[in-house]
């Protein structure tokens, strides 16, 4: 009960900084509101924003970026593309614990999904790249990923008259197909990748029957004693921040990049939309299923001083509660 209440108040404070003033309506000392009111508050916290319509130019850039995302000319040997690892059918990830490099060996980390990144504030599990444009340069120039290099990529694409015409339309005023416009187009496409609406969104919009009883129990654990919402809050279900959630230490994570804290192997909170499609999980792909993720949070945490204070210690879930939490995650 105490956990449930403190998690609840924490989220009210977070959403207050995002412009919602529920915390004023319900100060920290308030009695817990009745369930129906509580659901209204959660609905406001998980509500999707109005879609932002793209203007004509942005639409052209998105369409061009969609082509480039699948274009193997961005790889040195013309044999792979962004979509080799970020596969649309796998929620823009690849089903592998860790991504496969050009030489067939695994890279160091799991391929993340690419949903709802338009509002993300940093990229990669350690957040080392500040924009989608800067991120897109990395795979094109990294030896064990695509490795064409920006100059070669631009030269190859320029040699394609039809593509050159599309660039000219999407980037009016530019005299030649530039490295920057390749990155801009890829980023425009990625910003358009919004996770599809699900039954959870129907529940958020007010359809009380959109989730069954088990899924609703899972939701109550997610926002209640599980404490999940303190990091996976908001419609994208991420706080855009970095935490140590008590996995085995195998990677310095954010501690190795500017902005990180020495000694704290923290990773970016992934958004959980479409999470049933993006197994295996975590930065190292070490948890094969959602059941394994729930077992991690409820019993398998590694205790160390850097473990995030927001992770609920000694989370006790019985088999039914575990199954309910997994069922809820599958509605996202
Ligand atoms: C070899 C597989 C592979 C290829 C090819 C690849 N990626 Fe990735 N991508 C990854 C992995 C692995 C990560 C996470 C790496 C890390 O965090 O250090 C990642 C991370 C990202 C992220 C960060 C997502 C987030 O939530 O922070 C974006 C965006 C992205 N890739 C876009 C692209 C684009 C665009 C291309 C093509 C130009 C591309 N990727 C090519 C494997 C790949
Ligand atoms: C302290 C913040 C925090 C809390 C609390 C938290 N998470 Fe996470 N979650 C994270 C971070 C950070 C990661 C990535 C960790 C890593 O890879 O090292 C993550 C990863 C996940 C993933 C894997 C997603 C993917 O794409 O790989 C799932 C699923 C998940 N959490 C669900 C939950 C559930 C369910 C709860 C509640 C029982 C919970 N989380 C509580 C921060 C948190």
Description:
The protein is mainly α. It folds into two domains: 178 residues, Orthogonal Bundle (Cytochrome Bc1 Complex, Chain D, domain 2), CATH 1.10.760; 136 residues, Cytochrome Bc1 Complex, Chain D, domain 2. Helix 11 packs across helix 13 and helix 12 packs across helix 13. The longest helix is centred in the first third of the chain and has 16 residues. 36% of the residues are buried. Bound molecules: heme C (2 copies).
Please outline what is shown here.
The protein is mostly helical. The protein is built from 13 helices and 2 strands, in the order H-H-H-H-H-H-H-H-H-H-H-E-E-H-H. It has helices at residues 2-17, 22-25, 35-46, 56-69, 82-85, 132-141, 150-158, 161-170, 179-191, 199-204, 213-223, 290-297, 319-329, and strands at 242-243, 267-268.
Q: Which oligomeric state applies?
A: single chain
Bound molecules: heme C
CATH H-tier superfamily of the largest domain? Cytochrome c-like domain
Q: Might you state the CATH topology name of the largest domain?
A: Cytochrome Bc1 Complex, Chain D, domain 2
Order of helices and strands: HHHHHHHHHHHEEHH
| CATH architecture level-2 label of the largest domain | Orthogonal Bundle
Could you give the distance between the termini? 25 Å
Strand segment count:
2
Mean of pLDDT: 91
Side-by-side strand order of the widest sheet: 1-2
What share of residues are in beta strands? under 5%
| Fraction of residues in helix | 25-40%
Main sheet record? 2 strands, antiparallel
């Amino acid at each position: 009960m105490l956990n449930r209440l403190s998690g609840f108040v924490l989220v009210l404070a977070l959403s207050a900084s995002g412009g919602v003033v529920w915390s004023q309506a319900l100060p920290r000392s308030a009695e817990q509101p009745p369930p129906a009111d509580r659901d209204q508050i959660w609905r406001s916290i998980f509500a999707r924003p109005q879609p932002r319509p793209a203007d004509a130019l942005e639409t052209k850039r998105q369409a061009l970026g969609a082509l480039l995302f699948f274009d193997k000319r961005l790889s040195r040997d013309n044999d792979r593309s962004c979509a080799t690892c970020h596969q649309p059918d796998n929620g823009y990830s690849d089903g592998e614990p860790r991504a496969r490099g050009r030489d067939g060996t695994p890279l160091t980390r799991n391929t993340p999904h690419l949903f709802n990144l338009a509002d993300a504030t940093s990229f990669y599990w350690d957040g080392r790249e500040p924009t989608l444009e800067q991120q897109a340069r990395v795979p094109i120039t990294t030896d064990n990923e695509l490795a064409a290099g920006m100059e070669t990529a631009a030269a190859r694409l320029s040699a394609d008259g039809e593509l050159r015409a599309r660039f000219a339309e999407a980037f009016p005023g530019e005299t030649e197909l530039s490295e920057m416009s390749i990155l801009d187009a890829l980023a425009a496409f990625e910003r358009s990748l919004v996770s599809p609406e699900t039954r959870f969104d129907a529940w958020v919009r007010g359809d009380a029957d959109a989730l069954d009883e088990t899924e609703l129990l899972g939701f109550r654990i997610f926002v209640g004693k599980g404490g999940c919402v303190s990091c996976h809050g908001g419609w994208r279900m991420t706080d855009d921040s970095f935490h140590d959630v008590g996995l085995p230490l195998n990677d310095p994570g954010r501690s190795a990049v500017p902005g990180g804290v020495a000694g704290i192997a923290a990773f970016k909170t992934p958004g959980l939309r479409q999470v049933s499609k993006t197994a295996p999980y975590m930065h190292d792909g070490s948890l094969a299923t959602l059941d394994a993720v729930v077992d991690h949070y409820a019993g398998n945490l590694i205790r160390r001083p850097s473990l995030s204070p927001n992770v609920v210690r000694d989370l006790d879930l019985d088999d039914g509660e575990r199954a309910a939490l997994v069922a809820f995650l599958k509605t996202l």
